[in-house]
Specification:
The chain is mainly β and 369 residues long. It has a domain of 257 residues: Neuraminidase (6 Propeller). Helix content is 0%, strand content 44%. Strand 9 and strand 10 form a beta hairpin.
Amino acid sequence: MQASLALTLAIPAARGQSAPKTKSLPGKSPPALAVVEDLRVTLPDARAQRGSSLLVGADGRIVSLPQWGGDMVVFDSTGKQLPYKQPIGGPTDPEIRNANSFGWLGKSFWVYDPQSSQIALVDPQLKVTKSLEIPDWIRPSWADRRKYPVFGRMYPLALYPDGSWLVTASNPKSLVDTPDYDKTMTYMVRITEGGTIQRTIARIPWSPSAPRGGRPESGSKQAGPRNFAFWNPSADGSRILIGVPSTTPGDSNHVLTVINEKGDTIYSRSMFFADPVAAARMGRDGSAWLQLRGRTGDRTWLMLDPSGQPRGTITFENNTFIHDGDASRIWTTEKVGNSQLLGRFRITNAPPPRTAAPSKSSGRPRPPA
C-alpha cells in the first residue's frame, strides 16, 4: 500500500531504535559503470564565473541557464543550438535577474527569480509569458489554522498544471496556537499561487547540528564533511527524493525515500554511505544519482535504479558535475579553463577500459583502480 499523503520521514535511531547496520564489504560495493560520450558542446560565456546549469526535457531539449549574468540558450537533442536567447541578469533591466531554481511545466518551464520576487514562466522560444508574484506569506486556510503557522519564506520545488506549487516553507510566525505543527520538521507543502496551503506532502526532520535542508551541494562550503537531510525533485516534479541521516555520531546510515507529487511513497529504504552525500539528482524515470563527498577531490556518483537499488558508480574529476540523469544517460557540465562544456553520456554496465588516467582538464571518468 502507498503511504498517506502527509509523509513523515523518521531519522534512524532518532526514537531510540537502532538503524540497520550495513557494512561495505569487499566485493559487495556497487560496480564501476562505464560511460560513452555522445554529445559535447561549448556553452556561451556566463559572467561572474558562476557557470550555467542544465534543464533537460523529455524530448531531449537542453536549456542552459546561467545563474546570473549571461544568456539562457536552448539546444535540440542533437546538440544544435536553436535561435533563441533570454538574458539573465546583467547591467540592463532583464525580465529575469537570477535563475535560482527551475523546472518543467508541460512544454514550457519556470524559473525562480528571488531578486525580482517572481517565478517566470518561459515558453519553448525562451520568451517570458507570465510573471507569478511570490506571495508575502505562506498561510493556512481558516480550517487549518491549528495545523500550520504563517510562514514568511518559501522555496519552490515544482509547479503543476493545476496551478499549485510544491514548496518548502520556512520562517514560521505563530499568530495563534498551532498544536498540530511540529517545529522540529521542515514542511514540504502544496500551495496555491496566492500562498494558501492546500496539504502537506512530507515532513522532514532535521538535526540541530546540521544545515536545515535544501540542495545537498549547498553544504559543500561547510568546514568538514558531515551528514544532513536533503531533498531534490525531478525536473517535472513527478518524483521527489528525500534523504534523512542518522543522528548517531559516526553513523552514515540514511533513510532514502522517493515519493510522487501527491506524497505517496514509491520506496523507502535504509542505506549506508561511506562518505556524506554532497549532491543529489532525481530523474524523471525514477533513477537517482547521489554524489558522495570523498577525500580525493574527485566526484563519485552512485546511481540508484527506480526501485532504489544501487546499480553502480561513476567517478568524474572535480571539474565535471551531473545536472540530470536517468537509467541510460547523464547530462553534465565541465569546466575547462575559462570555458564550460555541455556533455551527454550513455551509461553501460561494462567497466571502463584500463587506460592511463586522463588529464585534469578532461573531466572524463577515471578507470577503476
